[in-house]
Specification:
This protein is α/β, with parallel strands linked by helices and 614 residues long. It has 25 helices and 19 strands. 52% of the residues are buried.
Length: 614
């Protein structure tokens, strides 16, 4: 797992610009604490930071393929290709020779053998760039689900690319400008394909290849989820899901460094832990997160029906894992250093910063003992675990279900209660999301002959996979790599995704509970309490003291005349809260989220020197 960055220019000599690429690469140090290098020729400069996971002594990058003293291609690559051994054998049979034992050289040789079509043969999570000096062509590629990130910015007669926006913003020709559309995307909380909030930065889309030549840039879609008739009965469907998931977990256990599983005690992560234990001869290691004192102070709310900790312990005991709970304190959640670290990791404010910080703190603790962790992300998107799959009013809202849910309480946008009304009117979160919703619906791969309900549920699943899932994968990647931890997501195996996407909703909801097929697939592996447990999101602190700490930070912003967020605030609402002199309401999506957004915006505008053109 690594960080990559580079610059291609068809006019200037980039051998004289190596320092710029080194500066870009330096911003990605957390992604790759083990090694660093930059390669350059006249037209291209490619940089790399390495987190060594496979072939620790070899597989250095940028990786070059040479013949008779001539450079054929240069690769910088972030990710893991799980079928690299099979590909290596095939390439060797075609005459390729290998000097290393990892997957990096396999990706490079795959490009030499099959060109840009090599992506069709790669199974895993990846984002890479190949500079081909023979054709003067740069290839950018991203895995099918978009697990690994890759951003770029057009620069006159060239292009710069990087794993994260911060690396592009370190380039002297790229400014941190956010316009009305970018701010709308930030506040709407949808992933607009190809967008990156910053005006001058774009993102390679999941399942996409971008080819850049002197006179053209071409984008090719090499994979997307497809619709087809599901003919398997329930028992066959359950068996197939079990097989595909167990195979995915087994493939993702390959590692030359310590590996573990994140375990919440919910169905999704518990299934991963069970399959990991079955596939590995070594005793599995698991980690969970809990908040100090929550075993006695936990209160049910709309999202959380029960406390994770007892379920995680029960699953760990049932599976016989070496389990370690990570306990977090309220003070850690509002520590300015932690807050800045999570903001810097993602390069943007988010609507759920406390969730981001608790995940960051969990991953930071896990990194002290492991370098790779498996997690249960995207099972809800695949199997229909969210309320947004079940609430008819959300499904028929004419908007993304999760956006419609937020607009019920905040008509101008979630987490915006303290922002200036005229600003929010210009940004127009409801209109922005409705426009993108119409485009997203039109892109749904329909299946002929389906009735209206089946079409609606297919559409809902597709919306979650294409406009919600990318947000979660981006969060996981960035927070994991901020501490040098590689996160793997077995549910993102494209064969599993393609199969489950086409399972009819009646079958996914066969027993009246969410994720019926997944429950049946692991019914013999997990305790009954976990199999019957309702969906519970990643935990957040319920400590009233959190609200007092938020109050102190909000007051600091309100009394700072140099605060960059002050001109963006609703003067009446923010002044009333400031004068109230009480702890911020620390539950739900109301006041707590509004204050957290103000604090994040203030820090973001300061740290990134953002120029808002709204």
């Amino acid at each position: 797992m690594c960080g990559i960055a580079g610059w291609v220019d068809f006019q200037r000599d980039l051998r004289e610009q190596v320092s710029t690429v080194r500066t870009m690469v330096a911003t990605l140090a957390n992604r790759g604490p083990d090694d660093e290098d930059v390669w350059a020729d006249e037209r291209a400069a490619l940089g790399f930071r390495r987190l060594a996971v496979i072939d620790l002594a070899g597989s250095r990058q940028p990786a070059r393929a040479e013949e008779d003293g001539r450079t054929l291609a240069v690769l910088v690559y972030n990710g893991e290709v799980y079928n690299f051994r099979q590909l290596r054998a095939e390439l060797a049979s075609r005459g390729h020779r290998f000097r290393t034992a990892g997957d990096t050289e396999v990706v490079l040789r795959s490009y030499l053998e099959w060109g840009p079509a090599c992506v069709d043969r790669l199974d895993g999570m990846f984002a890479f760039a190949v500079w081909d000096p023979r054709a003067e062509q740069l290839m950018l590629a991203r895995d099918r689900l978009g697990i690994k990130p890759l951003f770029y910015s057009r620069l006159g007669e060239g292009i710069a690319f990087a794993s994260e926006p911060k690396a592009l913003l370190a380039h002297p020709l790229i400014d941190a400008v956010v316009d009305t559309e970018g701010l709308a995307e930030l506040l709407t909380y949808i992933s607009a394909p190809g967008k990156a909030v910053y005006r001058d930065i774009a993102e390679v889309e999941p399942g996409q290849v971008v080819l850049v030549r002197r006179d053209a840039m071409e984008k090719r879609r090499y994979w997307s989820v497809t619709s087809r008739e599901h003919t398997d009965d329930f028992e066959t469907t359950v068996e197939t899901v079990r097989h595909l998931l167990s195979e995915s977990v087994a493939a993702e256990l390959v590692s030359d460094v310590p590996l573990c599983t994140l375990l919440s005690g919910g169905l999704d992560s518990s299934a991963i832990a069970a399959f990991a234990g079955m596939a590995s001869p070594e005793k599995a290691r698991t980690f969970s997160v809990e908040f100090e004192g929550q075993e006695t102070t936990f209160r049910r709310d709309h999202w959380h029906q029960d406390n994770d900790a007892p379920f995680a312990l029960e699953v760990a005991g049932h599976l016989g894992t070496d389990h370690e709970p990570v306990r977090l304190r309220t003070a850690d959640m509002v520590d300015p250093i932690v807050a800045l670290a999570t903001l810097h990791a993602q390069d943007l404010p988010t609507p759920i910063p406390d969730m981001d910080r608790s995940l960051y703190l969990l991953l930071r603790s896990v990194r002290e003992r492991s370098t790779v962790a498996l997690m249960g992300e995207i099972a809800d998107e695949l199997f229909g675990g969210y309320q947004s799959f079940r609430d008819p009013s959300l499904l028929s809202s004419g908007n993304f279900p999760w956006v419609a849910m937020g607009l019920r309480k905040s008509p101008l946008g979630r987490s915006t209660g303290l922002l200036d009304t005229s600003l929010l009117t210009r940004v127009d979160v409801p209109g922005f999301s409705r426009d993108h919703y119409a485009t997203a619906v039109a892109a749904t791969p329909w299946l002929d002959g389906e009735d209206e309900q089946a079409r609606l549920m297919r559409q809902t699943g597709h919306l979650h996979l294409t406009h919600w899932l990318p947000l979660l994968l981006a969060r996981d990647d960035r927070l994991g790599m901020a501490v040098g931890l590689e996160l793997r997501v077995p549910y993102c195996d494209h064969r599993l995704v393609d199969y489950v996407f086409n399972i009819p909703w009646q079958m996914k909801n066969a027993d009246g509970m969410e994720k019926s097929v997944l429950r049946a697939a692991v019914a013999d592996l997990l305790p009954p309490s976990v199999l019957k447990r309702k969906k519970s999101p990643f935990p957040v602190t319920q400590d009233p003291g959190y609200g007092q700490l938020l109050r102190e930070q909000f007051d600091a912003v309100m009394t700072d005349p140099s605060s960059p967020v002050r001109p963006l605030l609703n003067e009446q609402a923010s002044t009333e809260l400031f004068r109230a002199r009480r702890p911020v309401e620390s539950t739900g999506w109301g006041e707590r989220r509004d204050v957290e957004m103000v604090l994040q915006l203030d820090s973001w505008l300061r740290q990134y020197q953002v120029r808002l053109e709204v």
